[in-house]
């Protein structure tokens, strides 16, 4: 495989970082690399908040569920889906802008995720480690207030960046046969059962851990309750009415 594919396949979430700081010039280049990602109709419906205030970092760590590395990583970014900028730009041309459409929410969320993944890959190519922080959506209104986000902008996730202080194993993914299907959707329960065995072994043998679980059991907290049930009301109040 070429070096790019090998880099992509070597991704690990990093949660412990050295004290070494990322040069600001490099951080800016990472964002520029993020901007090079595909964007629906060139809308570029995103904004990135680089959180440098230590008190705000501590508060975000708390709001995200007590994830201390939000405060201790060299840098922390909050990736926001932003329909404010493009709709206002369109409005200034005289367009009769319709806001709050479900497709606008999808476009902004997908654009933001593509931007962030480009940033992640660029960071890893420079020897940095990253960790996505979905816990930003645990308290999205408090995060929005802290970051002074306007209407039609919402925080999708955060990202810790820094120089890794650990070298964890790569976590096994589902077999490609389970997710790559020819022409039609087919049952993959046998492949999932085999993958559960793989993950059981991974958790029991990985460095520094003896976790007794597998992929299917790990999903239980996500689906046996209403996960982040506040998100629909929150998004509606932000102007994403999902009409």
From TrEMBL:
SUPFAM superfamilies: FMN-dependent nitroreductase-like
A matching Pfam family: Nitroreductase
Annotated EC: 1.5.1.38
Residue spans crossing the bilayer: none
Domain of life: Bacteria
Family label: Belongs to the flavin oxidoreductase frp family.
Protein name according to UniProt: Oxygen-insensitive NADPH nitroreductase
């Amino acid at each position: 495989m070429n070096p790019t594919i090998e880099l992509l396949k070597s991704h690990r979430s990093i949660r412990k970082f050295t004290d070494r700081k990322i040069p600001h010039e490099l951080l800016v280049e990472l964002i520029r690399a993020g901007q090079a990602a595909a964007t629906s109709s060139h809308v570029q419906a995103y904004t990135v908040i680089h959180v440098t205030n230590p008190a705000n970092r501590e508060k975000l760590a708390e709001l995200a569920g007590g994830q201390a590395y939000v405060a201790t990583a060299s840098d922390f970014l909050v990736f926001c889906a932003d329909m404010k900028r493009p709709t206002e730009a369109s409005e200034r041309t005289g367009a009769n802008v319709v806001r709050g459409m479900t497709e606008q929410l999808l476009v902004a969320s997908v654009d933001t995720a593509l931007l962030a993944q480009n940033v992640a890959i660029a960071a890893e190519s420079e020897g940095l480690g990253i960790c996505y922080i979905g816990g930003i959506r645990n308290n999205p209104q408090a995060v929005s207030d802290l970051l002074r986000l306007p209407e039609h902008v919402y925080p999708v996730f955060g990202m810790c960046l820094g120089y890794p202080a650990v070298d964890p194993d790569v976590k096994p993914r589902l077999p490609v046969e389970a997710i790559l299907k020819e022409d039609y959707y087919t049952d993959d329960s046998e492949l999932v059962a085999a993958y559960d065995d793989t993950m059981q072994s991974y958790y029991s043998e990985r460095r520094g851990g003896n976790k007794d679980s597998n992929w299917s059991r790990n999903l239980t907290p996500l689906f046996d309750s209403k996960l982040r049930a506040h998100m629909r009301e929150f998004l509606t109040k932000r102007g994403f009415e999902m009409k």
